Structures
1.
Amino acid sequence: MVTQATNDDFLNSALQQRADYIPIDELLAETSEDGELFQRVQKELTNRGFRTIVGPRGCGKTHMMRFAWLRCKKSPTLPFAVYVSFNRYFRLEPLLSSSAGAIHQFHSWVLARVLIALRDSIKKWKPKKNINTDEIFTEHGFSLNQLISFVTKIERNQPLDDANLALSESLSIEGIQNIIDTACRYLQRKHTVLLMDDAALTLTPDYLIEFLDIVRSLKSSTIAPKASVYPGTTEVSPKFHQGQDSIPVPVWISIDDALYDSIMQEIAIKRVKRLSNIPADAQAMLRFASFGIPRAYLTMLDEFQRGEFKTTQQGVNKIIKEHVDARISEFRSLGMKVPKFEKLIITGEEILNEIAKELKAFNKTLAASQKKQLTYGVQEDELTPIVDRMFKLLVEAGLIYDAGTVKHGSPSRIYRRFLPHTSLLLSIRAIDSGGTGGIKQTLEAIAFKTTKHPIRKSLSTIAPNIKFEELSFSLPKCASCGTRRLTDIQRFCHNCGHQLVDASTFNICLDTEIAKVPGLTDWQRYQISENLPRLRTLQDFLAKQDPAADLLTIRGFGKRKTAKIVDVLNGFVDDFLS
Amino acid sequence: MTKPATISEDWATIVAVREPKERFDTCSLFNSSHDDSCISPIDQFIENALGLNKLWATHPTEELAPEIGILFLLGYVSAVESYMRALVRRLIYCDQFSQECCEKLQLSYGAALHHKADVLPEALLEETVFSGKAEIIKALEKFVGFKLINKSIVDLLEQYEMVCQLRHCCVHRFGKLGAKNAIALGLQSHKEFLEKPVLLTKSSISSIADLLFVLVKSINNDVFRHVMQRSATGKLKGSGQIGIGWTWNKAKDKRLYQSYYLVFASQADAQISPSSSDLYERFRKIHKQAGSRTREK
């Protein structure tokens, strides 16, 4: 009985932090609508323009989109909304090394996903007139079963049969626009917003360029695409112009924002049961440590409630340290997923640590005057394209906040301001009022006023060992003789003459043990290895066509519970592989 | 240096010439010990093309002698043609559905008399060429019963067709663009190059070779997919059951599966094919459903 309860608890808590798993009916009640940021993003998500919703993982993009969808559904004056997630795109990565038509198939996959989501939306919209959803589809020449079969086969890397290929050929941008417009008319709305979630496609730049092209073409006077991306995503495409093609809408709230505390707290009040049991000091520390990422805050509060800590201090320190470690190992895993980034990831981590150390040293000198500084300024001309890309990767992983550029005097002294992750700063005690380093002192120091100017030191001064001019993408080795290629565009190995085909990294990632997926808490790890001994690696999990069937064989696992476990695992796997 | 003797009345010898030193004999030119019956068509292609790759990939400068460029082009297209020939031949020998396509075709008596059974299908291909898009599509349909509809491969074949037009210039005109080829490539855009020689650099050779590698590997995969799928779901003429008799028992199916696997698998590529056991299991996972349903019927 006891284990039963804790198991359910674990599942609920694992689900609760992910917006995808809040049942849509409860989303309204669970959403904190306060804050000018929230209102502005909601407005942008329902207007007629093409917008990119920009922020790192866990900052609330999915939540915003699902909430917008719900608002549209409830209010007849708002547009028709279709919510579609592309979080499974990485499963198409092996195609890049197994098929000459990979980009083409990806194109069809995106359009098929949109159509399936469209049908979902129409059904849930429950139109007044008795519309047969499937009829709309047949009229436009699409069969839902065919679409699902196509998408499933592509995502499972199964060869396509002739019917699938024929379907793939029949999917066109115009066709999709037409059917969306038809549905919109049926539902008596004036235009459609296409909420495209998980559209950063970080791990497959080849697909990303194609994707941005598709989204651009989908935009019409009646269809407004909204794509959720990471910072820097859209700069990958030479054809895509941020600002001209789309307007970026940042959703990551800065730790410097005057309303930071109240907005984060509002979310916790809505989402965390028995919040008042957590000491206010601990809440304040974790709120600051979560660095503007609501999901991180909720997870840490949950950890605090769950862990049996001797003192608040010990609990808070442990949770913050673990949070930094998880973020860093998630960042490192990017190096495995995209081998090209390997060097940039290693250097990025070094720079991040150096910046944090600089801030620590600086804050020590400020403590006496009751001031603090969390920002580091990098002179713009030090940000060569490759160094800039390195910082973008850090921003994308949520390890650094890009606070924009600022001019100091002459144009040659333009600085880009970066804030390193507050958990990292806390974990090395970079913010301290000079006392014993207890929670009280730290909170005091956090409340200090910020000095006017960030630290401005050149990168080469703080990291003399890094040769920035030699920084480059790591070009892959030849699979036959192991010689590293000389240029990115090289087609054959200059040593052995073999054709250079990049090995699929997706398959390498599948060897990752589920228990080692960053982002899982100790508790979750334990539960998974205890309850699911047969599902050791991601491979084991994904290879199962119906993982639920396997789980049901475990004693004491009922249908509902199994469905939940599968949801949790799917969530983590999708998150890790995207 | 020396002036011609004034006494000669030979007004026709305009250049100096002498007798050839020996009589030409083709028998001495072939390697009779060569045997590639155990090498898959794709590996033959890779070995052939790799031999060519090595000649320029290690070359230090971007420029190649124009004559060498022309020879490379001929070599690569020849490797593709030879692949297609080997693939079709091997399939006719091992695949019952392909055999069905060829039942009615005629063969020269000489070939029937002297060829070994496994190269006999080669004789069927004697009149067939593979130097162009239409030719490859036609041959796959005629001998294998495979209709190529995959758009990305059709697109590759269109580019192959352009390479073949260049090849034509190289074979017949030492690389100069002829009118017929210019028309095929688009006269408007190519008219200024008429009678101008093709000039191939290292990077242009590299992109041609890359295209052909991608084409051949894609055809290899797509034909494999089709043939395997047909072997599980197609119906032979006059046969009551569906498929060629897969039992979905790994040990029992091993030989049959292997006979197909060896036609398509590569050991010579930088990344070798997954093992036949692995691929068989993936194949079984998807198709055993179809098979068992038919057995119930």
2.
Amino acid sequence: MVRNLAIKTLSMVQKKLKEDQEDDSFNRKNSMPKKEPEDIKLEVKDLSFFYGNVQALKNINIKIPSYQITAIIGASGCGKTTFLRCINRMHDLYSKNGYSGKIILYPDGINIIDKKVDPISIRMRAGMVFQKPNPFPKSIYENVAYGLKIKGIKDKKTLDEKVEWALRASALWEEVKDRLKENAYSLSGGQQQRLCIARAIAMDPEVLLFDEPTSALDPVSTSKIEELILELKQHTTVIIVTHNMQQAARISDYTAFMHLGELVEFGRTEKIFTNPSNKLTEDYITGRFG
Amino acid sequence: MKGLLYKKVVDRVITVLLFTTALFTVFITAGIVYVLLSDTIEFFKHVSIIEFLTEREWTPVFAIKKFGIAPLITGTFLIAGIAILFSAPIGILLAIYLSEFAPGAVRETVKPIIEFLEAIPTVVYGYFALLFVTPNLQKIIPELQGFNGLSPGIVLGIMILPYTASMSEDALRSVPQELREAAYALGASKLKTALTVVLPSAFSGVIAAFILGISRALGETMVVAIAAGIYPNLTLNPLEPLETITAYIVQISLGDLPFGSVEYLSIFAVGFTLFTITLIFNTLALWLKSKLREVY
Amino acid sequence: MDTVFEALGIIAVFLVMTFIFAIILDLFMDGLQRLSLGFLTSYPSRFPEKAGILSAWVGTIYVMAGAVFWSVILGVPAGIYLEEYARKNWLTSIIEININNLAAVPSIIYGLLALGIFVYRLGFGESILTGGLTLGFLMLPVIVVATRESIKRIPQSIREAAYSMGATKWETVRDHVIPYSAGGILTGVIIAASRAIGETAPLITIGALTFIAFLPPSPIKADFPFVSWDSFVEMLKSPFTVIPIQMFNWISRPQKEFHENAAAAGLVLIALTLIMNSLALFLRYKVRRRIKW
């Protein structure tokens, strides 16, 4: 009987080892028990960020819900973009910056800003759309396909399919399907931004980060992109930084208000805009400052 | 992520390779210093430093070899001196004109033309100096000899206009427009503003340009080898033939050069001298340029 | 007073243009009659009427090919490193100061470097290989600077876009930085090469000949595979001359007829310089039109 127990234990251990080996995605030494409910995508705990000696973020605690649009609003310089760029470790590109605290990504439970976690693996799971459209000076097709290629996808048919899917999902396909080989710079500003969104979506990201995506665009393009973002909610978790309060009110499910590097208030958008709990939030919403 | 480890290894290897090429440039300088220094030291085993510095004749190619570097030094500096004397006024005139007076279109056309002076091969300048400038100057100055210091000096002066004119102009342009406007508002004319406000503000940059021009003239070879001659001559008279350090190196290199012979070593000794002189000038100029950049 | 000055300025501009014009005109008047197909296909000779620049321009091509090779292979990666990888520390500063210094070192010093190291200590001899290395090192600082300037023009937003998608540093450099700066780098290479073609002093110093009546062995063969490794190596080891040295040699002769040859060679040099500079300008224009940052 002891022998049977030993064999059972051995096969269990072997199975576990095989499972570990197969999951070659992340550094499993960092995984924490997955106990959080399914509807949280990112849990930020005591996040602080320093540009050199200057503290730009002070102890941010927030839980970003999955498959929802969370807007981050606040006056210029309050740290909203800084916070956004912590999520995909963009600050790593520049020296003398430091993070402290944790950003837990679910369902794995890894800490995004742990030094041992490779930013590259995070960036492939989190896409970013920037304030000023920045397509590559390559063809429209190449722009969307780039992310797939660095992921290792080489098969032309697969690439074609995914490119088309991404362009459809960003409401750009009909406008460019006949000129995929043209240079991306031949597109208008609004189209370029949608191309950048397509580029990010093609990677099938778990989180999509938008950094004031429509501030450089005209109102028509802006509303097109807002419609687009509303649809993207089905595929991914969206976090959008915006200095346009009306935009936040229009499209987001949850809103976070930041001020001077701190998170002042977070909650459902309707509540924040109609009945904020914090006086500072109310002052900002009603336009007393910012 | 599939292949992430592979990507990171490739990344590291590429970084090291790229760094190596960047570091290599330091080795080039190290190589120059090593070659010049070691053969100079070897040279001074055959020739005393005292003789090198105080002897007034330089005759390594004669039977009675004398190794005083003075004639080469005077030759080199005299011609460079003529060059800067000729180039400075024209250069600063052009610089101020282009920076303060000329309309944009004129400036955009003229600057490339000045830069083109640097593109003309120096042998062509040498040809021009010897076979056009000298004969024509001789009509005005009959005592001018076939090989002399004046023709190459003048031609060199034009040749360094990209430094004295164009680089100075860059320095003048870097002075902020607000300073000029403040002067104009007080009623100063363009010229007065240029001379009393802009030029003093850009002074270190202009001087740096001039120093680099002199350095260029000191290191020039073909113009002087062709038009000034290969007869070392301790003189301050530019109407006579002169030999510069660079022309001497060419002269010796054209002949038989047994490795390790005194003639062979001598070109390294004078070359080391030239390298040191231009290094001092260049360092000074680059330091002055960075001073200007700090201010603006 | 202002107008006087402006007039002086315009006169100075015309002075410069006249000077350039005079040089070219002088070459034309002295040498045009000597420019012929025969001139381009004959070897130098004791008889000025028969002399030509065949060995010189072939030598120029081989040496310049080597020079471009060495300067690009060593200079472009160095420029990429300094712009994309290097951190701002003392080592980087030393490298940068050093490159600025190398750009201002007189060209003849490079000849001395090559003489001491390549010709003798490494035993490459007075050969095309040494010539290519010498001019390559001479061009190197210019190539590094051209590479850096070209890379600097790429906006940071493009790099951020690539990194945000999970590209590694090398992927970003390989897929974006290099392709977008390639045009500018090529322009810089052409301009540097146009200067190197006229370089005389360092090549004389390493022992380039002033009179050769033969061609270096050609690495190209008539039949497959059209290139031969052995001939290539023989070519590298061969003595050589280049156009400016040939011109210098002819100027140094007392006979007026040789001076005419020199003028003709000078015209060839100027023509080459003009063509290459125009090519570079055209390239720069096309590149800037295609990618409008």
